[in-house]
Specification:
heterodimer, A: alpha/beta, seven-stranded mixed sheet, three-stranded antiparallel sheet, 48% helix, globular, B: alpha/beta, 11% strand, initiation factor (chain B), protein biosynthesis (chain B), cytoplasm (chain B), NagB/RpiA_transferase-like (chain B), translation initiation factor activity (chain B)
Chain lengths: 505, 343
Amino acid sequence: MSDQTAEPAPAAAATSSQPQVAPAASTNGDAKTTKPAEDAPKKLSPAELKKQKQAEKQARRAQQKGPGGPPKEQGTPKDAQKQSKEPKQGAKNEQARPMPLRRRPSQSNVPIQKEPEKKSKKESRQAGVGLFFGHLYSQPKQQSMNGAGKDVHPAVLSLGLQYSSYAICGSTARMVAMLLSFKAVIESYQTPPGTSLARHLTNHHLSPQIEYLRSCRPLSISMGNAIRWLKDVIIKIDPATPEAEAKRDLLEEIDIFIRERVTAADRLIRDLAATKIEPGDVVLTYASSSIVEQAILRAHEAGTPFSVIVVDSKPLFEGKQLARKLANAGVKVRYYLITGASHAIKDATKVFLGAHAMMSNGRLYSRVGTASVSMLASAQSLPVIVLCQSVKFTEKVALDSIVGNEVAPAEELLSEAERRDLLPLKSMLPSSRAASKNDDKAATAEEEKPDTSDVLKWIAESKNLHHLQVLYDVTPAKYIDMVITEYGGLPPSSVPVVHRLSTSI
Amino acid sequence: MSTNSEFDIVSSYRRILNEDPELTMPVAAIEALVEAIAQSSVSTVAETLDLLERHTAALKASIANPISLSAGTDLFQRYLITTLNRPASLNLGPDDDFRAIRNHLLSNGKLFVERAKQSREKIASFGKHFIRDGATVLTNGGSRVVGALLRRAAESSTIRFKVIYVVPSSRSSDANEGDQTVSDLRAHNVPVATISDSAVAYSLGKVDMVIVGAEGVVENGGIISRMGTYQMGLLAKSKGKPFYVVAESHKFVRLYPLSQFDLPIEQKVLDFKVTDDLKVSKTGDKESVDEGIADMTLKHTSTGLDSQDAVDFTPPDLISGIITESGVLTPSAVSEELIKIWF
């Protein structure tokens, strides 16, 4: 990946940026078990937050300029990108730096209030990321429920953990799960005296839940759409409505939303997509999409003789699940990794893809690797069909996969087994080579009790190797022949039309 | 047919089509359906829709290539549903009885047919501006609306242009129409060269633009048109010649073919054999069918389209623009138009 060319200087800058840091290297390996600050971020007013962050930032800058800090020039691109993630600050020394205005709205005002220790880990990882994806590392991923605000509902707490561990994965599933947990939130909600439900619920009760979910994993487009819809529904509630009635209506509305936009939509899409599978077809799909799975099973139930190729990739291996489910249902399945996609595509006759989102310029935002699969298919002039509920349409446009993307912890890239396989290479490390000259005994003693997390430490320590795991990529519209939604089959150019249609109702 | 004893939709459709040679299939279908409703004694919305459905099915089953026809029937059905569901939009009170609604429908149906007939002239007046003075136009005949456009351009005194006409290589059903257009154009002092399908690539160097008609415009902006249009599109694209489609907007079909073989009709174009059939030509062996045998093959049309009447699908990326009576659309705008109609 492109990050390999990253200069090491910002790494040094970032690790040394916190005044009271513990050495970054020692804490990096167990980033998953980090415990975030318990001070609830919500208690601080935005102004206070800003002040605090400003102070921190200045301290960091001072540190960076101090001895050992990198030349300013090298630090700039990195900082500039980081800058775009955080609220603009008034520090004078920043005026000289280029400040891109680009900012991802979904993450821009996330309160980052972590213990210094935590931050340092984050920084060290972030520093390891190259020029292009630095802006995506805005905040560390929440991996536990420590530090969640006291307002966060238990249902949301557990959901957040399921998000961050990928137990609930896939944008539709995440959206539905979120709405269901919001139902629990609304059910147990009581309007404080002196406020009305329509005014209070969204800002003061739902927002902390959403913030918490966002800290577990960035919100998906569909979740964003659903939240916008829900807020809209809540705000339109007549303040005169009795609370019990308003809550009941809300719960009902959520159920209707799920039924209309997901359940019924799924059925329509599935039925239409199944008719596109003809006898003798070889349907190729990438990773795993629930709607693609449903369509394939539907066609199989209808008795169409066809087979499926599942192309999959590291590190989530979502396709394994899909392949297993399809095979259990009696569909003929072949399973490839994306490394073999160019071979797989030769046998295929159609490509079915799931979507994370459809952009308004007709581009598909989906699991990383989708773009290469659809380009391969397009080169073979195979029809590429995207199955996507209209709830995943967004008015945003994407020109590349760099500006907007999601970065998952890079540790996930290396499986436990792979880390173990790498352990014997320890002697090749520059540091241990130097050490072994002086002290052979110590080195072997260390090898005696190999710890797989060591491998991650080596990578974190290394100057020229960075791990990067992005989750999504963007497929240009010209590689997509058809988008099947609950409104029927469309060319990708009609995405904005349908989006307008589905949001105006 | 068997489903409706009172009214024979198929024969009235055929009669309407024969009576007025200017009529296109979708319009004739709508006219036939209006007639069917007029003669029926339906008195409820559900009954009307049910009747419509039965007639449409009968009509579609009766002809080999219902793509163009289904554009009309679908449009009419959609129109019916929206108007029947919203009687208020017809300035009728909720108390008005169904008969009033029906009468409104019938008169509007007639209006639609009138408008559809006028649309060809409208397209011709739009489209003639695309032909620049001194241009050479390549077209592949058979389409009445292309004929109307070229005639209109020929009548205007300011445009001098030449036409290269790809004549149908076999006796297809619209061959006469093509001959008529050629002689009309020549009568207007427009030089016309007629070539065969195989000479398209050869002639392309002399061509400035390609204009073709369409049987149906599908959702992704591609067109379904007589066999040979796709290859003209491919060749035009490879030589960078603009490729325009002329079609009335009632030819927009809710259909989304992904490839040539994804059409909802059966075509007997590719017919693989291992033996030399003695009666090779009986099944319509590619293009080289002579007249006498072509007549014999006509009876096969009920099971599948023979190569003379076969159609192909031209994907949207080959098309520069679609000239309709409501303006000139890019292929991607077609789906937008269809969505407007359907939702």
